Fold this sequence. Notes:
Layout: H1 14-37, H2 45-53, H3 59-79, H4 84-87, H5 90-93, H6 97-106, H7 111-115, H8 118-131, H9 138-146, H10 166-176, H11 181-189, H12 195-209, E1 220-224, H13 232-240, H14 242-247, E2 251-253, H15 254-261, H16 265-275, E3 281-286, E4 301-306, H17 311-320, H18 330-350, H19 364-377, H20 381-388, H21 393-396, E5 419-420, H22 422-432
Antiparallel strand pairs: 1-2, 1-3, 3-4, 4-5
Amino acid sequence: MIEAPSDSENLSDQSFSKYLNAFERLARGIENRCELTGETPSLAMIPQQIALRSKLVAKSTIRFEISSARMTLKDAIGSGMWYPSIALFRWIADAEPRELTELSLSLQRTRLEICGLADDLIDELCGMAEQNDHDLDGDELLERVCRFEKRRSDRVVNRNHKALTWSDWHALEAALSEEDPIETLADLLQDKLSTPGLLRLFVAAMFMTGMRPVEVLSFSCMCPHPRHQFSPEDRALILSDPGEAIVRGLLIPVENAARHLGVDLGRAAHACRRQSNGGACVLLIHTAKRSNANADLRLDFRLQVVDTDAVRDLGLLSFASQIRHAKMSRRRWDSLRNGLVNLLKEVARREPALSRGEDEINLYSFRHAFADRMRNTLERLEEVAALTGHTSRTTLSGYGERGRKKGGGGRAPDGWAPRPCPKRVETIRAVWSGQLKQVDVGPVPERR
């Protein structure tokens, strides 16, 4: 066992202090990871933690963290002692000499070799987290494992977090209302990132529908076909089986509808609803989950029925659905996500109307707020699962304000909330009750 040196032996060199701080940050991240996955922390996870952080931080930061790990480990091996701040992590202080040697060899790899561990590791950790009742996709896992600015004991636990409210959403919308969605999308398609404008669209889509941040990149807003004569049976089909309505061509992407009607994209969905005498729109959301706690409920997409005439909300969803045309690479998304998170925290810092401060808010706060609202509003847990893409009852039990009566607080001030696909709800009910063992997913509805 390596013992910690006494306080009088602490180095005062400022540069080495930065190395120690970086090493501590890696160790805290490993503890966050193990809290989610149920693993036991070990020194072998240090390179893996650096690989995970490479998805969120700059190359220069990763180079420094690799150097800090090498330098801290070299000093510990040479002196036979850990510094007090490092020795506070008992799993480090109690490590055997063999573990130090193995870590030293592992850290001799290049930055690219270390960072190359990330993709497979993210998939593996998501599966482990789900087995430990944490339903996370890759992006949220990275946020939980790699982003922390306070001590672990100060972090907001998801099951006890304070939900964002409609007042919070209106405060953010007011703060970002000067950002023109049309200009934002034009810049995006020309490889220019207008972070404030994109933040407005991301926040709107996630808060109103509960999408994961990465799902905003690929969803479609499907509207009643403006050239179809809708019967009552057609409108009923959209509500009862939206997937079949898409396959039959009753619904088309909102951008196509805008061209047919010759109207602005922001008003196309509302115009289609009016022309079809109240036909609903449908959101086709390609799920970001690569694994599921319940394999019998694995599905590549989910559908939400949007049956409202709220022009602004329909417009924001329509504009947000155009982000998919940018064909964003993983590297570009990593950069954009970091920019969105930083800007969100900046807005939270300067907006006193928000009920949550910069340390309590991130992109997933809006998905969690949606899940809270639906959990408090809907009577059936299967409906919440169908809307959010969850497949585990245990995960959903963490949402909703405890003690609050059902039926309140989930709908928008104008009275609307998205509806789940009824067929998906019944499938989830059947699987959860044991009446159905396997699900025939069928083809993904095409976006015509």
